[in-house]
Amino acid sequence: MNTRLKRWGWGGVVLCGWLCFSGGLRAQELSFLGGVGTRDEGKPFGGTWQVDYRQDFARHWAASIAYINEGHVPGHHRDGNAAQLWVRWPLFNERIALEAGAGADYYYDTQRGAGGGSVDEHGVAPIYSVSATGYFSPRVFYRVLVNRVDPAHGLALTTATVGVGVWLGEGRRPRGAKPDWVSAEKAEEATPNELTIFGGQSVVNTFLSPSARAWAAEYRRGLSPHFDATAGFVYEGDPEITRRSGLTLQGWVVNHFFQDRLNVGVGLGPYVYIDRKHPRAGGAANPAAISPLVSVTMGVRVTGPWLVRLTWDRVVTTYNRDADVFLAGIGYQWGR
Predict the structure, then answer these.
(1) How far apart are CA 192 and CA 222, in angstroms?
(2) Which residue, 74, 112, 142, 220, could crosslink 194 as a Cys pair with Cβ 3.0–4.6 Å?
(3) Domains of the chain
(4) Could you read off the pLDDT of 289-336 as tens digits, one per residue?
(5) Highest taxon of the source (predicted)?
(6) Quick check: 44 and 158 in contact, CB under 8 A?
(7) Phi and psi of 218, rounded to 5°?
């Protein structure tokens, strides 16, 4: 994979993350979609779904970051993180909008390897999209979305999805003769000290998808209203072909909603781990390794300083052992 393309792909995610979560921006939309896909030859296939966070930064312009699972393609399990810029055409006083987007998709493609094994291929591909959005109510909307992911040397796929979403801005989505698309809520304070203990499950990305119980601990601190830093420990359990555990250090772009009762964020950083599943000959200790850790999180305040946090980690490896770690935890905040 071309190194420049990889850097551009990660750079696009960072840029769109900043546009989506930085202060003063408006019209935050979170949507969940499902549908079908097709390759240039062959029948349609199912299992396609997407989670999309989109934010306007001007009346006719928006940025988005998304997780896209492209479905059950024979011989491939491909998903990815996409960053896009959008041009919007609002109609009927903001009740409906037509949109066209383009950007980069950093994909993870689990393929069948020799001898019945699996190979994890990573790369950056251009993504082109069109969508239509309409509001059922001042907060709830529907969206129809078509994506085209077209790697230079790989599997080109087109997906069509439909779903629902919620507008997270302050008050209600603008309606009527004078829509105020710039209505928003602005976080005035950074995240205080936060300690969270998690439990959950890890799944190794092979065609057999072995899984195990996992747990983690994380310390989080806001460095600005829209940027957090975390340090933590993750134990991925023993899903038959790996047994990893190690330290994490991540930076996050975050946003806060509903008077800080809800927060969402996207994180990226190094995961320093040891895989004890296959010890060296003679019992020598395995050396530590470093992999990128890409994460999304959502925190919901329950009462006082207590909150519930959900986190989804993607471990990106170089030895065909990518993994997802799904975590739910209880956190405590102090020192605001």
Answers:
(1) 6
(2) 220
(3) 3-167 (2.40.160.20), 193-334 (2.40.160.20)
(4) 999 999 999 999 999 999 999 999 999 999 899 999 999 999 999 987
(5) Bacteria
(6) no
(7) -145, 135
Bridge partners (DSSP) of residue 325 are 202, 313
How far apart (Å, rounded) are the C-alpha atoms in residues 280 and 283? 6
Q: How far apart are the first and last CA of the chain?
A: 44
Tokens of 233: 């420990």
> 157-170, pLDDT tens digit by residue?
999 999 999 988 76
Q: How many beta carbons lie within 10 A of that of residue 170, not counting itself? A: 14
Nearest to 94 by CA among 181, 201, 31: 181
Beta strand spans in the chain (E)? 26-39, 45-58, 61-73, 76-91, 96-112, 118-135, 140-149, 157-167, 193-204, 211-224, 227-235, 244-257, 262-275, 289-303, 306-315, 323-334
Tell me the residue length of the chain. 336
Q: DSSP letter for 115, please.
A: G
Look up the pTM and report it: 0.86
| Rounded Cα distance, 7 and 169, in Å | 32
Return the closest-CA partner of residue 44 out of 173, 161, 134. 161
Q: Is 38 helix (H, G, I), strand (E, B) or coil?
A: strand
Token reading at 1 = 């994979």
Name beta bridge partners: 209: none
For residue 18, give the H/E element and its range. helix 3-21
